[in-house]
Amino acid sequence: MTSGASRRLEGRLIALGVCGSVAAYKSIELVRLLRAEGAEVVVLMTKAATAFAGTLAFQALSGHAVETDVLGLLPDNRIGHIVVADTADAIVVAPATARWLGAMANGIADDPVTAACLASSAPVVVAPAMDGDMWTHPATRANVARLQDVFGYRLVPPETGSLASGQTGIGRLAELPTIVDAVVATVGTRPVRRPDAADRPPRVAAPHEADLAGRHIVVSAGGTAEPIDPVRFIGNRSTGKMGVAIAEAALARGARVTMVAGRVEVSLPAEAAVVHAESTALMREAVLDAVFTDSADALIMAAAVADFRPRQTADHKLVRGGSLTLELEPTEDILAEVGRQATGTTPRPVIVGFAAETGSLDRAPEKLRRKGADFLVANDVSEAGSGFGTDTNRVQILAADGSREDLPLLSKRDVAHHILNRVARALDARDALAHTGRPRTES
Ligand code: CTP
What we know:
Blueprint: E1 13-18, H1 24-36, E2 40-45, H2 47-52, H3 55-62, H4 80-87, E3 90-96, H5 98-105, H6 112-119, E4 124-128, H7 132-136, H8 138-150, E5 154-155, E6 159-162, E7 168-172, H9 176-187, E8 216-221, E9 226-227, E10 233-234, H10 241-252, E11 256-261, E12 273-276, H11 280-293, E13 298-301, E14 308-310, E15 328-330, H12 334-342, E16 350-357, H13 364-371, E17 375-380, E18 392-393, E19 395-399, E20 404-406, E21 410-411, H14 412-436
Parallel strand pairs: 1-2, 1-3, 3-4, 4-5, 8-11, 8-13, 11-12, 13-16, 16-17
Antiparallel strand pairs: 6-7, 9-10, 14-15, 17-19, 18-21, 19-20
């Protein structure tokens, strides 16, 4: 397995187009290499390609259904090759046959690989494989020139060696690491196009083991609203995306999930038990109830909770007049209260807080201690791609033992899984200690 530091396609979606050549079997290994670089891979195949290599191996390795039909629809009725075209960070066609080069050069979209390329603004890498005479034929030369010079596609030329025909010559598919390097170079430092899993083609296999099965995880999400009068409130910019991503990830890992939702702009997972709690006071009640009465194994406090609320709430809508002065009083600190109550609770729930800061994360270690949390997920919401309403986040995970994990800019789903990795390990360590009386070292 490639180490984390050298995963050059982390968070990317790479579409792999496979055409009908003997070299199609090599594309199965190409999926594995792209995934080892951190990419999510979705495979499109021409009809002829499926005669050389079955779809099952591609599906098992990629975790996505294989697109074989240009008329194919996803389970939610979206058009398969269009979803790929709109979300892929790069399309790599390997092996590309002489027929495919001709179809692509002329925009004949009668297979899903050509159709996706035509419909996409993503960069395209083409790695041909064919008989030597086919490769040198003027028709193929012209098609390749058009793809490179007019369409701007990156060519990974075939190499010289033994061919399927038994002859030796030019036409062998380039070495797979060379193709992976070309994909990495093509993607470069462009931002991830569509990091949100909901936009991308759906996965067919759970990407994570059920390491939270039997656990009850409470997740708060969204922003609180502190009423001024019956129509106005003090709120904030939280949309609930991060909390929902955590709840969905926890469900995928087998947990029972209670969501305590403030004001959210995204739909909540149907499999979670949802408690709506708009004000800080209601959220406090709901969180304490879910954590202590319903014996939670962990609380992940992703909600943006107000620090102040109007001391008085007017019964009637305030009418326009001169100036208006609102007197604010501090709200309850829910996380700190859970932290205090949890001390002395057996088994003690794992507590995760968030810290949305602007400019510097220097205050995070002090906040972790003050709130009595096991982990604090800190981010700078003023940074591009991080914060309210985005699909991505760059966070640091601080632990009560003083350690710190700095994560790169990731989709909120991937951030959620990193947080849950810590929670799952902390719960396993907690239980091991309870059973044996001996601490278990983190693996
Ligand atoms: N939090 C909470 N109750 C509050 C305020 C915040 O439970 N009344 C939780 C948030 O859900 C978050 C963590 O505490 O998980 C940190 O929130 P943040 O607003 O960054 O911290 P504050 O306590 O507001 O500290 P400061 O205003 O100094 O930044």
